[in-house]
Amino acid sequence: MARDVSAPAPPADERRLPRASWLARLGWLALAVYVAYAASLLEITWERFYAGLGHGAVFVARMVPPDFSRWDLLVHDLTESVEIAVLASFFGIVIALPIGLLAARNMMPLWVTWPARALIAVCRSFHPIIVAIVFVKAVGFGALAGILALIVASVGFIAKLFAEAIEEISMKQVEAVRAAGAPFFNVVTFGVLPQVLARFIGFSSYQLDSNFRVSTVVGIVGGGGIGGTLFAAFQRFDYDFVAAILLSIIALIMVVEVFSARLRATFQ
Q: Are 227 and 129 in contact (CB under 8 A)?
């Protein structure tokens, strides 16, 4: 009996659907098995979790009420954290601008972009705490180590996003400025920056916000700021003062978040 060739064949997507469905199920099953395996290796049990809830309740109870009697120390260390964040953000952004431009493949040749991208990758490879430990060993305890660590983090973040933003611009405006005989600096000023300025402001404000948060942590490893005081309070079991420090950090971050949001809204 001859096969009916007039009936249309099912679409290719429908023919592949059962196989894709089985692959997805196998993938979810493999993920569940691995999660259970990793939890067993890391000794994650419900008993430890419930015990931790009890210990956490005792810890929180010892933090109430917060002790703000040493407000002068709080203000001094919070001010130092703010200074660390602002200085690191400023110098990080200034350094990231040329590096991001050099890393943009639509503006630079490969022999320029690859070293710039390698430098960005190195800056992004390590957490700021690890970088802060290195700088503490290099320059000693204090705010300088924290500033240098956050500069490295800022360069890695801002330069990468700035390079990607430049690669997404329309080259028509750039070519128009070039056709007018403008030098490279004017090409960047009038052809590139107007297209990426709003996004760059957003990147910078986000990094400033991030540096404020991280500046409260680098002090734990000796990078200056409120983190050192927080770590010392934990070591002394001075939990009511710990609560005061944490509430002060939360208040500071909320203020910075409002400022960053208004800054982004201004330039958008």
A: no
Give the C-alpha separation, 126 to 143, whole Å: 19
Q: What is the mean pLDDT of each run of 10 residues along the chain (268 residues)?
A: 52 53 82 83 76 77 78 83 88 89 82 88 86 86 87 89 82 76 75 78 81 83 80 81 85 80 69
pLDDT at 19: 58
In CATH, the number for domain 71-267 is 1.10.3720.10
Round to whole Å and give the CA distance between 45 and 50: 9
Residue at 27: amino acid letter = G
Cα 194 to Cα 14, 131, 155, 177, 199, distances in angstroms: 47, 34, 21, 12, 10
Among positive and negative, which fits the CA dihedral 37, 39, 41, 43?
Answer: negative
pLDDT at res. 20: 59
Longest dimension (CA), the chain: 96
Angle, helix 239-267 to helix 71-103, in steps of 10 degrees: 40
Q: For the chain, what are the domain ranges?
A: 12-62, 71-267
Reply yes or no: is the peptide bond before residue 8 cis, omega within 30 of 0. Answer: no
Q: Which residues contact 255 (CB under 8 A, 6 or more apart)?
A: none
